[in-house]
Every structure is written in C-alpha cells, then in structure tokens.
Specification:
This protein is α+β, with helices and mostly antiparallel strands and 182 residues long. It has helices spanning 12-17, 32-37, 102-111, 125-135, 157-164, 171-178; strands at residues 21-27, 46-57, 63-78, 85-99, 115-118. The longest helix is centred in the C-terminal third of the chain and has 11 residues, at 125-135.
C-alpha cells in the first residue's frame, strides 16, 4: 500500500487520503545534520521512523489533513557531567496538521496547539524526521549516573608545601588593624 509514496517527495494529501503508512530503519549517516551533532560518531547506528497519514472533516465541514510521526535513535553524544561518551536515546511522537497555503498555515499555527505545516505534493518527510530528532536532543546530554567518580575538587601537594613556609600575604594588615586605638 505504501510502496508508491516517496518519503523525499511525499504528496501529503494523497498520502493522507489513502490513510497510508511509511516506515524505515535508516542509518544515521543518511541524516547529515543529525550525524554532525554526534561528531560523525556512530554513523552506522539505526534511525527508525514511521509516518501515518489521516484525512478527516471537522465539525464545520473543513477538510483536515494529518500526519502522525514516530521516530527514535540512540545517539553517541558526550556527557557534559563526566565528559565521557554517552548513548542518548532520542524519541519523537508528533502530530502535524496541514493547511493549503503558507499564510493559512502560519495563521493557524499561531492559534492552535498542534503544528501546522503547508500542504505539499513534494514534502520531504525524511527532512521532517531529521528536524524533529534534532529538536528532541537534550540541551545538556548526560548519563543518568556517571560511571566514573567525578573529581569535584583539586588539590596540589606541591602548592600546599610551597605556601606553608611563607607568611600569609594579609598578615601585615592584621598587624596594622591591631595597632589602631579606637
């Protein structure tokens, strides 16, 4: 049923009217911007996605075109707590409604809770998958609990030894303060 729909040039209206479904398991390397977020590590890791189209009529008789998207990937990122490698699961489950023109999509997007996109006969579904996964990336990737014990203080024995024989730099001020009469 979905074999005649191209995810790079998707006719969204025909896809929704057919209540069609597309899905794939691609490699991360096919998503250039998402792969760049990983520093090109894990290019052979899977990116799974599934899209389902739906067409219905609302209470006022207006035609509504919908696309439901699920996507997930496990990305090799750097933990910002321990600076070690961290496999971060990124998951997306979103509904998109489509409007016939850019102006209508912009106006409806401002007033509605769902995302409203422009209806297109050559919609880039894989581009949408990549956009949504990038937006789902955590701002600060980190392990739930880091495997290494983090060293949160620094001690230098040479520094302690060299400063122990010298007078404290503010010792002279303490002497001046003690000499005040007041």
């Amino acid at each position: 049923m979905s074999s005649h729909f191209d995810p790079r040039r998707l006719d969204v209206l025909a896809f929704a009217r057919a209540a069609a479904e597309l899905s794939a398991v691609d490699t991360l390397s096919l998503y250039e911007r998402l792969c760049a977020e990983t520093g090109a590590a894990g290019a052979d890791r899977p990116v799974r996605w599934r899209a389902v189209g739906r067409h219905d009529t609302d209470a006022s008789g207006h035609s509504r075109v919908w696309l439901h998207l699920d996507a997930d990937a496990c990305l090799p990122l750097t933990c910002q707590r321990c600076l070690g490698p961290a496999d971060i699961d990124v998951t997306v489950s979103r509904e998109f409604r489509f409007a016939p023109t850019e102006e209508q999509a912009e106006a409806e997007d401002e007033m509605s809770e769902e995302d409203v996109l422009v209806l297109s006969r050559d919609f880039d579904l894989k581009g949408l998958v990549e956009d949504e996964l990038i937006m789902a990336l955590p701002l600060v990737p980190r392990h739930p609990e880091c495997l290494e014990n983090l060293k949160l203080s620094a001690q230098d024995p040479d520094f302690d030894a060299s400063s122990s024989g010298q007078p404290h730099p503010f010792a002279a001020l303490a002497g001046l303060k003690g000499g005040e009469s007041g």
